[in-house]
Amino acid sequence: MNKTIYVLNGPNLNRLGTREPHIYGKATLADIEAICRSELPDWTIAFRQSNHEGELIAWVHEAIAAGAGIVINPAAYTFTSIALLDALKMFEGPIIEVHLSNIHRRESYYHHSYVSKVAIGVIAGLGADGYRFALRAVSSALA
Ligand code: DHK
């Protein structure tokens, strides 16, 4: 079986560590990548971040051919991108949506996720540990 899990991160997540730490915590994206790799050491983790919608879509297209599962924090594109949703609809493996913050406790514009239409599960509000649980969920779904 293909052993590659794509962990995709959307806009502004490259700023983690100093970006509103009271909301997103102090873990950097590199810290989160290390968490992901340590959680599933026997899997290949394609860990990526982009501030560009089209680049995230291209990575989803790559995962359609080469990936077993997707963990995605689409960040702001969660709430705006039908294009990203359309790409994710083509992916046949398990998708877990993750958010560092509890988007449902925040401003109303963070409350409707397009991505949730295709995710088998959503993890929000658990900070960097949310990625750990997301990877466990994808691994379990593929077992
Ligand atoms: C990250 C973002 O950048 C925001 O646009 C989302 C999400 C929340 C997070 O909590 O990881 O609303």
What does this structure look like?
- With 143 residues, the chain is of the alpha/beta class.
- It has a single domain, classed as Dehydroquinase, class II (Rossmann fold, 3-Layer(aba) Sandwich).
- It is 36% helix and 18% strand.
- The chain has helices spanning 21-24, 29-39, 53-66, 82-89, 129-142, and strands at residues 4-9, 44-49, 69-73, 95-99, 121-124.
- Strand 3 (69-73), helix 4 and strand 4 form a beta-alpha-beta unit.
- Helix 2 runs parallel beside helix 5 and helix 3 runs parallel beside helix 4.
- The longest helix has 14 residues, at 53-66.
- The mean pLDDT is 97.
- It binds 3-dehydroshikimate.
- The site of 3-dehydroshikimate has 9 residues, from loops.
